[in-house]
Amino acid sequence: MISVPSPANPLAERASSTPGGPTEQDPGGPTEQEWSAAVAAIRAAGPTGRVLLMCHVLPDGDALGSMLGFGLALRRGSEARIQATFPGTTDLPPSLREMPGQELLVPADRAWTDPDLVLCFDVASDSRLGPLAGRLATAPSIVVDHHASNTRFGQIHLVDPHAAATSVVVEGLLDRLGFGVDQQVAECLYIALVTDTGSFRFDMTTPAVHQMAARLLATGIRPADISRRLFDSRPFGAVQLFGEVLRRAVLEPDSAGGRGLVWTYATLADLERYDQQPYVLEALIDSVRCTIEADMACVLKQVGETSWAVSMRSKGGVDVSRVATALGGGGHRLAAGFTGQGEVSEVIAAIRAEVR
Fold it and tell me: I need a labelling partner for 137 at 20 to 30 A (CA). Which of 12, 254, 260, 281 fits?
């Protein structure tokens, strides 16, 4: 592992602090050696190096914002050659199509096969990289993430499970590199932050999160415009689709150890009937999780004949990351997911068995 001296970074310490501090069961953020190794690897790529940035399939605001925000700052600060990519279709949801930095994006099949440096953003497991995972064996790699379920793939790990978003870790890395945050970078990082904190409603919203938001807003970005694009814009077909899917929701007050489970599902036929793309379903979990009688909420989204992308949320009584990990996925204590196989009843039965 490459290692160079690096001064203490109070910004990163503020962003990753948690009441009570890390424990052996509750690991802390990156060590000083890991920060230093990441900085050294990025600097070693130099202005002539080819730096490949990757995030997970179907990127959300945190994955895409963290990746593109870092890419814009790196391009300005080092003049490195940069590509950014993710597996699957490059068709982004409308809410993310105005994010700065999209000129860095290339389809996965056009990404460099032999880059000089690879950085992964918001990826808990290399399985979320699909065919891009092979790039990790071709160059030094840095994993920038905030999932407690991160499998520690790659070589250098900037993983902080106490960070509210991967963009928090990115801001700490940019600070250590000496790269400033302009308005374009700030918009990317703010989108990432506001997405993963649920507009600053979730438990990971600490004083440090609001301090970071204030730094980003100070660049002149427009939070009202950003929030409208992210949360308040939806095709009418999606509104109708949500209504149908919510009507089939099931409440099981005795499930999840008596804490209550509410769940529903959306099929490929539902999407076709309302002429909608799969990304519109990402917001559906928020309409389900508000059920007052249930601590735990699940939405099953069909992705194949017998395959379901499962989103899970908890209000605190259930550790859904443990459930997701047991079923082949991962995530956070209050928000996690996995890919289920079989009929809807079989996937829900597997979830019930893990939270019984």
Answer: 12
pLDDT attached to residue 148: 87
**Model confidence over 4-61: pLDDT tens digits?**
333 333 333 333 333 333 333 446 799 999 999 999 999 999 888 999 999 998 899 9
| Residue-wise pLDDT tens digits, 310-334 | 999 999 999 999 999 999 888 888 9
User: Which amino acid does the sequence have at 216?
Assistant: L
Q: Is 199 left (phi over 0), alpha (psi -120 to 50) or beta?
A: left
Residue reference for tokens 């993710």: 86
Dihedral sign computed on CA atoms, order 278, 283, 289, 291:
negative
What would the CATH number be for the domain defined by 236-355?
A: 3.10.310.30
Residue 62 sits at φ, ψ, to 5 deg, of: -70, -45
Give the pLDDT of residue 38. 98
Q: Is the dihedral of CA 184, 187, 113, 77 positive or negative?
A: positive
pLDDT (average), residues 208-230:
96
Could you tell me the fold of the domain covering 10-231?
A: inorganic pyrophosphatase (n-terminal core) (3.90.1640)
The arrangement of strands across the sheet holding 156-159 comes to 81-85, 50-55, 117-121, 141-145, 156-159
Tell me the one-letter amino acid at 331: G
The residues spanned by each domain of the chain are 10-231, 236-355
Per DSSP, the three-state class of 264 is: strand
